[in-house]
Each structure stands twice: as structure tokens, then as C-alpha cells.
Amino acid sequence: MISTYISNAKINIDVKSVELALDALNQFLAEPSNNQAPVWTYRIPELGEGGACSLFGALQDEPFSLESELPKDKDNNDALADLQKIVFFIEQKTNVDWFGIYQARSTSEGPQLLKLAYLGAPSRPLFPLTPEFAQISNNVQVGLSGKARIINDVATYVASGGEYYTCDPKVSAEVCLPLFNEEQQCIGIIDAEAFQTEFFTDAMMAFFVAVCIKIPHYLPR
User: Fold this and answer.
1) pLDDT in tens, 62-99
2) Which of 32, 9, 159, 34 has the alpha carbon at shortest distance from 84?
3) Dist. CA 33–CA 38, nearest whole Å
């Protein structure tokens, strides 16, 4: 399972380190004291130029409701609570500045990545899964390709000609990893951002890979 994920996502990481991280995650999820309440609404920024990203610090008046895309029933309520618990695990283990879990879903606007749970500053709720948007979005690029993107120095990456749409100017490193179903199709992503360069060490990446293996079991229907 771990080896298959590593191979499909094109990540160079030690299997044993992911096994240990996955054991820690399973233990964390089994502890009743770590129960988290589901979050159905959250604040979102105004969209930036071209709708490609968001205006950092400028929030829309109305919060975004996941009910616009998900039936609010017990199964989905439980799913969001479990995903929020995974977010809490990542917060405890990595102290990353921003982390989000997205599911690929069909919407009235076409296929999009829907943000289901997160920690950190408010951010956009939906990313169109289109080749055009992939040119300016790591999230969409990973959502379409199923291949990981790890940028440990955003400034150097941009200076060398890499395309990067800055949402929060404090972000200095970013990781986007795919989520796979049993048929190894990409059904979502995780996105993590840090305010310091070289943040995503091999030891740190083991936790992110571990949650990617677990998250598909908890995604809403």
C-alpha cells in the first residue's frame, strides 16, 4: 500500500518512516480524546485577478457552506469530523503553517477540488480542475496529474523560472500530494504551506504521506 502510493505519486521517501507515521496516525485516530467537531462553514477571501487565487486579508461577507456541494447527513458529518481530526494530527506532528484536504468533485461549474478541512488562514474553497488553471495552481496540477509537487524554496523556484501564484506572501515552501482511490485514480489532494524554506524534510514528509494513505477512507460520498 505504502510502496504503491510512493510509486504512483513519484515521491522519494523511505517506506519504514511512513509505516511509523501511519502507526502514529492510526493510534491518534483511535483515541476518543482526539475527537473533533465537523466544520461545515468557513470564511473565504475575495478572489484575486482573474480568479486565480485570493486577495490575502480581504474576506467575503458570507462564509462558504459545504452544504452547497455536500448533503448534510450523518455519514458526511462523520466524514468531516474524521478529516478535521486528521488536520489536528498534522498540526500536532508538523506545526505547519497551513494545511488543507481537498476532494475532487463534480459541481455545477464542472470538476473542482473542494476544500473539506483545513488549518491556517482563510483560503479559496474551490479550484477548477482544468488544464488552464493547472498552469497557475499547484493544487490543480497535482489533482490532474496525480504526481506530487514539493517546493522547499519558493523564491528560488520562482527566480529560476517556475510558475507560482502567490496567495500569502509569507509562504516560503509548499507541498501538494495526491489522494488515490483503490483503482489508483486521483480523487483529491492535500496542500501544505510553511513560512520557512526547507521546511519539508524527509521526516516531515512521512506524516504527510501517511495521511494521504488514510484520508481516502474518510472522504464524503
Assistant:
1) 999 999 999 999 999 999 999 999 999 999 999 999 99
2) 34
3) 15
Picking from 107, 186, 181, 105, the residue whose alpha carbon sits closest to that of residue 145 is: 186
Strand partners, 6: none
Q: 3-class DSSP state for residue 93?
A: helix
Which candidate, 89, 63, 57, 82, places its Cα nearest to that of 219? 82
Cross-strand partners of 115:
102
C-alpha cell at 51: 480568479
Question: Do 147 and 118 touch, CB atoms closer than 8 A?
Answer: no
pTM (whole model) above 0.90:
yes
Average pLDDT over residues 33-48: 90
Beta bridge partners of 176: 149, 191
Mean pLDDT of the region 111-130: 95
For every residue of 151-162, DSSP letters joined together read ES-HHHHHHTT-
Residue 157: the pLDDT is 84
Q: What is the mean pLDDT of the chain?
A: 93
Question: d(Cα 221, Cα 105) in Å, to the nearest integer?
Answer: 10
Q: Domains in the chain, start-ordered, CATH in brackets? A: 2-218 (3.30.450.40)
List of residues 6+ apart from 174 with CB closer than 8 A: 138, 149, 150, 151, 154, 191, 192, 193, 194
